Every structure is written in C-alpha cells, then in structure tokens.
Amino acid sequence: MEQLLATSDSWAITIIRVTLGVIMFGHGAQKVLGWFGGYGLKGTTGYMTSIGIPLPVAYLACFTEFLGSIALVLGLLTRLGALGVAAVMVGAIVKVHLPNGFFMNWDLSPGKGHGFETNLALLAMALACVIAGGGALSIDRLLVH
To answer: What is the C-alpha radius of gyration for the chain, rounded to an integer number of angstroms?
Structure first.
C-alpha cells in the first residue's frame, strides 16, 4: 500500500493533479449526476451502449471518471484515480474521437465531431500522476510521511 501512496514532493505534479481532477470532475458529474448540462447516468450509458460499449463497461467508465476525479482533487489514491482516468481517455479516443482526426471542432461545424487532441492532453496529465503520485499537497503524502 505504501508504494501506491508514495509520491514526489513536486508542486508541479500537484498543479497537474488538481487541474486534471477539476476538469474530470465536471465531466464525471455530467455523466453520473446530470450536472453542468450533462445527460446523467441513464442518458450517458444509453449513448455509450448505442456505440457498442457493453452496459457494465459504460457504468464503470462513468463512475471511474467521477470518482477518479475526486481522488485526484484530494490527492487520495492518486495513482489509482489517475490510472482510471487514463483508461477512460484511451477509451474515449478509440471509441469516439479518433475518427474525427486530431483537432477539436473549434468552429462547431455541424456533423463533425471533436478530434482527440484534448483527450491526449488529459491522458498525458493522468500518466504523469500515475508516475509521480499526488505531489506536495496530497493526502497520499500525508499518509506516508
């Protein structure tokens, strides 16, 4: 357990962790709670199953994104939360965004989805947290020191 909680004392990774957590909390709350204009759990899992994701995996993705974001904000079980977010980002790239190319659809052209550039950046942030842990200001750090 100590290996899971071990972390660097870096403030840089703390900034990455908290920023990623806040971003993912918004998206997770859309999916699970229907906040911030989201479709909620029923709407989101309905969409995910319509694109071929099995229902249990859809539920797992929604709750991983939501709970993983809370773990990241708090810096509690940072590596586990970040690994979950990384897995969700890989799934989002492969199942949704890859066919739309690299770039976001900044001008919101009808019939064209967003590319995977943002998902790739979030994936990189998550992997940095998997590697470095929670950083200077994290519950993980408090628990091992």
So the answer is: 16
Task: List alpha helices for 1-145, DSSP H.
Answer: 2-5, 11-33, 40-50, 55-74, 78-92, 117-132, 139-144
- CA pair distance 129, 110, nearest whole angstrom: 36
C-alpha dihedral, 4 to 25 to 86 to 130, nearest 10°: -30
Average pLDDT estimate for 12-23: 98
Domain tally, the chain: 1
pLDDT tens, position by position, 86-109 = 999 999 999 999 999 999 999 999
Residue with tokens 């708090």: 74
* 44: containing domain: 2-144
